Amino acid sequence: SQSRAETMSGLAVGLKKGLLVEKRKLAPRPASRKGKLGKHVKFVREVIREIAGYSPLERRCIELLRNGRDKRCLKLCKKRLGTHKRAKSKREQCAVFLRTTQRKAK
Predict the structure, then answer these.
(1) C-alpha 5: how far from chain center
(2) Residue 15, SS3 per DSSP
């Protein structure tokens, strides 16, 4: 829990040996924002979704979720997408779409 500088003694020998130095404050690296969704990319994806609509997999998944077949939806997505993690995120996307459309209908 203690930082390395606090544990150092300033001596060249012993368990806590080492020079006492202050930690440098570095600027964040460009790689640290990798994967963050930007405004422009979000806008472009929304436009594409609006124009292209949903894929057959997504339509079928939404239909299964409407009927309360969550597990079947997950199995279908896993079979088509290859991994459990991707399947879960796809099912969640479809569930979010379903919730928003139901909210708009009310």
Answers:
(1) 34
(2) coil
Q: What local confidence, expressed as pLDDT, does residue 79 receive?
A: 97
Residue 4 is predicted with a pLDDT of 59
Identify which of 56, 84, 52 has the alpha carbon closest to the alpha carbon of residue 71.
84
Cα–Cα dist 91/39, whole Å: 24
Residue numbers in the chain where pLDDT is lower than 50 = 1
**Token pair of 53 as six digits:** 């609509």
> How far apart are the C-alpha atoms of 9 and 12, rounded to whole Å?
8
Q: Where do we find the tokens 């997950």?
A: 74
The dihedral built from the CA positions of residue 47, 51, 57 and 61, taken in this order, carries a sign that is positive
Residue the block writes with tokens 């991994």? 83
Cβ proximity of 73 and 94 under 8 Å = yes
Q: Under a CB-based contact definition with an 8 Å cutoff, are residues 45 and 37 in contact?
A: no
C-alpha dihedral over 13, 15, 20, 21, to 10 degrees? 120
